[in-house]
Amino acid sequence: MKALSIILSIMAVAMMSCNSSTNKKKEEKTVQAENIPKVDIADIEDGIKANIAKRVAEGGGYFNMTSEGKELRLQLVRVHTEYLSNLGPRRHFACVDLADVSGDVYDVDFFLEGDPGNMNVTETTLHKLNGKPFYTWKQRKDKTWYRLPVENATSDLLGVIEKEDKFEFHYEVTFPEMEKPAKIWLPIPQSDRFQTVKLQAINAPVKHQILKEKNYGNSILYMELLPEHSGQQLEIIYDVERLEKQAYEEDGSPTRYLNASLLMPVGDRFLTLSDSIIGNKRNDGTIMKARALYDYIIDNMKYIKAGKYGTGDAVYACDALTGNCTEFHSLFISLARSADIPARFAVGAAIPSDRDEGGIDGYHCWAEFYAEGKWWPVDISEGNKYTALATYYFGRHPANRIEFSRGRDLEVQPGPHSGPINFLAYPVMEIENEPAFPKTLFSFYRKADTTKSANKASLF
């Protein structure tokens, strides 16, 4: 699903003969452009959904596909609007999550041709199974793209930029319809030894204030809104320089990170499970014990955005063994703390490594554990997706990231009527004390070609 920047060479077809005059070229191009209806993201999304609906009607209520001899009966989960792309005249691309009746979730790449209201799917390919890719995309010098088997992919095609990365990051919120006053809280990323964040602009319809969350030191933007702000936007722009993160020392006692939180219990079933996972490694040192927990989650959990995912509920993760990054790392933290290993949670966004601008597929979270006097970064959900990178993600986070906030159960004044904030990536919003969910989009622009220089050495 790394295909937002797929720019096919089709555009070259529109070029006129070299022998034509400049004026004639312009005239012919103008006529051609006038005959091609303008297509926007909503048109492509509608085209995808219409084709899926047709296939579902023809397939007895399912979108039917075959994978390695297995008949799949799929249903639409969502169209990834952040990856929709207009490839050229009447050529379009999108990737879609479809869930099989077995519970597996497939990421399917769709290619379409046609005009708004009359688009036909020309090709569908299974890109990922439960978050694990079958192939990646690589760009040629002529700007066209081709599929590359994962085993032949370099680190930058698997989401990793080493050493350093520099980019501009946009956090955009569109307020929902409001009939009563509302309040909103959202994270303001801060600089530390691994990231330098410079606030470029806050474009907001009302005044704001920055609250300080005391337990973890987070900065939180707070605003009070009125009904007349319905449909208006808030945009925050940052300039970010980020370093690859490896094990590091930090002042302060780590023991506070042994305590339970509301959705990450400690002890009881988690103590029993961690003991059984660690087994005879209990005398091999903290790093080995943490690695045993890390490997258990990689081997036993599936990356599936279905059910009660995205809440970071360790009990749910332990029972379902499915979820997104929040479930993977919440389970790890509960198990680690139960094994007397300090562990902590952070959330932000992963910046695509295979392109230099565009949308970002939502937030991403990760964890760290404490051993031998250092904090060790881990990213278990990414290690689960890319088996070849499982060793890399035990002890490192790549440079192409931005961290929004740390910790769980965040408390600020004034705070939400609902109580402590579970974790803060997307905005928390309340309209007259009732939860609301504004549309939130992340996008980026890489300011320098750091990908090539940072990834000269392969990880393999």
Overall 3D shape: globular
Model regions low in confidence, pLDDT < 50 over at least 5 residues: 1-33, 451-460
Mean pLDDT: 86
CATH architecture of the largest domain: Roll
Tally of individual helices: 8
Count of β-strands:
27
Q: In terms of structural class, how would the helical and strand content be classed? A: alpha+beta
Question: How do the strands and helices of this protein lay out in sequence?
Answer:
Blueprint: H1 22-35, H2 41-58, E1 63-67, E2 70-79, E3 85-88, E4 91-100, E5 105-115, E6 118-129, E7 132-133, E8 135-139, E9 145-149, E10 164-174, E11 182-188, E12 195-203, E13 209-212, E14 219-225, E15 233-243, E16 245-246, H3 269-278, H4 286-300, E17 302-303, H5 314-320, E18 322-323, H6 325-338, E19 343-350, E20 357-360, E21 364-371, E22 374-378, H7 380-385, E23 396-397, E24 401-406, E25 428-431, E26 434-436, E27 439-446, H8 450-454
Parallel strand pairs: 17-18
Antiparallel strand pairs: 1-2, 2-4, 3-4, 4-5, 5-6, 6-7, 8-9, 10-15, 10-27, 11-14, 11-25, 12-15, 13-14, 16-23, 19-21, 19-24, 20-27, 21-22, 25-26
Helix pairs in contact: 3-6, 4-6, 5-6
